[in-house]
Amino acid sequence: MKLIEGKKIAAEIKLEIAEEVKQIIAKGGKRPHLAAVLVGNDGASETYVNSKVKSCEEVGFKSTLLRFDNTISEADLLKAIDGLNNDADIDGFIVQLPLPKHIDEDKITQAVAPEKDVDGFHPINVGRLVIGLPSFVSATPAGIVELLKRYKIPTQGKHCVVLGRSNIVGKPMSILMAQKSEYANCTVTLCHSRTENLKEITKQADILIAALGIPEYVTEDMVKEGATVIDVGITRVKSDLTKSGWKLKGDVKFDEVAPKCSFITPVPGGVGPMTIVSLMKNTLLAGKGEVYKK
User: Quick check: do 27-123 and 139-272 share a fold?
Assistant: First the structure.
């Protein structure tokens, strides 16, 4: 069993991005600029946005954080997004989810200009991904593909099973793994809450990607010997063994599943760090105008 160390790979990629930014600046180019919109004071969102801001500093990006009270109206939030769309200095921006219940998340997502949608959530970017055009790819699936590349994990002709059909991870992940590319070309099965005989399907997987958000859902009897297991889940569960009173758990019961695997990601330190670094890569692409040609 080999551990897929996302934290280590993310650190390497940050150094690569930082070096490219230095070269851009040295040639008189513009420093990439990422903005984030944070509504309310959700603890998890706060932590995630702060880590994005910190990552921008590490790679030499300019960053802007726009904070709004959770009572902001949908109309006012749309105005703020329109301002970012029309700000020539900002290359890309993200609107941190979830949003307050009185705001329509779909409407907000679709208000972001596709060429600045570095989260890869806009329907135009999703559509471009589906038909194989250049697009901003949702950060977590993009990060997973990068891990497969960096660890040279064979994917050609393999059976990839994706657990979860969210718009952010499950669906784009299934599309990426089926594409004609070196670290894809899989036969893909997308499973969800209505899938019958789930265990029979997961046991056929050469590559199993768990993105359900249910702690330790995937157990040893669901995994084929020698499989590659990618654990996207990260849930806080109560624990008497830590000072904080909680512990982070993935969707995979790591201790019993890991011995059967050829490769497996840990939680934390696996997929999570790759999500943020993929956002940095998308911002760099936006700044260079390589997805939507400037």
Answer: yes
Residues known to be catalytic: 52, 96, 119
Domain boundaries along the sequence of the chain: 27-123, 139-272
Phi/psi of residue 89, each to 5°?
A: -80, -25
Q: Which two tokens stand for residue 216?
A: 């330790």
As its CATH architecture, domain 27-123 has: 3-Layer(aba) Sandwich (3.40)
Per-residue pLDDT of the chain (294 residues; tens, 9 = 90+): 999 999 999 999 999 999 999 999 999 999 999 999 999 987 778 888 889 999 999 999 999 999 999 999 999 999 999 999 999 999 999 999 999 999 999 999 999 999 999 999 999 999 999 999 999 999 999 999 999 999 999 999 999 999 999 999 999 999 999 999 999 999 999 999 999 999 999 999 999 999 999 999 999 999 999 999 999 998 888 787 777 777 889 999 999 999 999 999 999 999 999 999 999 999 999 999 999 986
Fold observed for domain 139-272: Rossmann fold (3.40.50)
pTM for the complete prediction? 0.94
